Amino acid sequence: MVTPTKPQRQARLVAGSAKAAQGSASFLDERLGLAHWLRPNLRKLFPSHWSFLLGEFALYSFVLLVLTGTFLTLFYKPNPDVAFTSVREISLDIRGGLLVRQMHHWAATIFVLSIVAHLFRVFFTAAFRKPRELSWMIGVVLFALALFESFLGVSLPADQLAMTGLREAQGLLLSIPLVGSYLSAFVFDGGFPGQVIPRIFVTHVLLVPGILLALIPLHGIVLTWRQKHTEHRTPASDETRVTGGPFFPYFAVKNAATTMFTMAVVALLATFVRVNPVWEHGPYQPGSPPPSAQPFWYFGVLEGALRLTPPWEITIGGFVLQVGLWIPMLVLAAFFTVLFLYPFLERRFTKDRRVHNLLDRPSHAPVRTALGAAVITFFTVLWAGTWVSEAPPGPNAPTPLLTAPHETYVWIVYGLSIAIFVLPPIVYAITLAACRSRARR
CB–CB of 231/47 below 8 Å? Predict the structure, then answer.
């Protein structure tokens, strides 16, 4: 008997594997009819421009959030008395706990940042127009949910910084007329902190992720797959032609590379950049000043608006109404409402009801581009309100990152309060003129 040589064994192994794969594919196709569905969809064309991958960064960051969050859930204790201790144990005692926790943080940061960048691309290129209004509205809801979920996540450590933020949120709830006290009692179960940590945990781990898991596939896969993708406008393009690379192998390989790149960036940031060291902040102590930490950038708009809004109060029938606390909440509510309905608002003013598959150049839509630039300037000025803080009054109080004496800080607040009304119109006018000048060339 002759023993097969190594090349013969490899050939038999390859042939056997191919036969097994073919048999499995035939088995599934006979029962599910996959070939009829896969064949045209694997050849579906997708765009090749890099800007279309901004949404993919958000998708893969969300996947990493789910994976790292599952690990953290195994060790986190959602009890107000031991929540901080459990987070400190995850960070300092559990093997790999600090790395996973920081990966979770950086994945959340990239998730929100990718959504913002993706939103900019869609807005300035008018990718929200008919027939993609539903996709835009779902994207706005995802943006709001991502911000809300991020706030819940940074509150779970129950350290001095997290509880200071929750105390501020309770103050905003209590300022709402008529129903504010009921909302606060519902969220906090009585006085502060009450049972807010277990309720935040359930909302952060089950409720909001469940909604995101339902909306993200609908926004990024179902609607995109059913509709023709948008394309950049070129001399050879038109509204009916479809160009790009096939899903397999072109887009699948690009997606795989994007996935590995996203996870590598998150891992590198988590390894070399330390964030939110809760063990330095210490557990929550009522009455103690918050630690020297600036608000996370995606919360800075609300915090800055609260700092820049005058502390206006109105007394009616013996009740004090905190108008100064309403204004930031009303501004954000109005912003998200207009953003949600923007495709229909623009259609009403432009009377354009055609189907659009080609993207606009920002310079070819000067009013929209100028409006977007003005809104970005408005929120940047609000965010700038958190960049500098007043110097602490005592030597034992934590020192913020950037401080200014009381007199200087007051002038900074006055200057930003004026800039919030002056800079957006100036930016609007400059952007409008620049776009019209470029369009005439």
Answer: yes
Taking each helix axis from N to C end, the angle separating 83-92 and 97-124, rounded to the nearest 10 degrees, works out to 100
pLDDT digits (tens, 9 = 90+) for 176-224: 888 888 888 888 887 788 889 999 999 999 999 999 999 988 887 766 7
From 112, 197, 198, 195, select the one nearest 150 (Cα to Cα).
112
The C-alpha atoms of residue 287 and residue 282 are separated, in whole angstroms, by: 13
Helix, strand, coil percentages in the chain from 3-state DSSP, rounded to 5: 70, 5, 30
What is d(CA 295, CA 282) in angstroms, rounded to the nearest whole number?
A: 17
Which domains does the chain possess?
Answer: 49-306 (1.20.810.10)
Q: d(Cα 257, Cα 254) in Å, to the nearest integer?
A: 5
* 315 bridge partner residues: 320
Cβ count within 10 A of residue 50: 9
Of the candidates 325, 283, 331, which has an alpha carbon nearest to the alpha carbon of residue 164?
A: 283
In the beta sheet, which residues pair with residue 390?
Answer: 404
Q: Three-class SS of residue 215?
A: helix
Range list of H helices, 189-251: 196-202, 208-217, 223-226
Q: What are phi and psi of 259, to 5 degrees?
A: -60, -50
Is 393 a residue whose pLDDT tops 60?
no
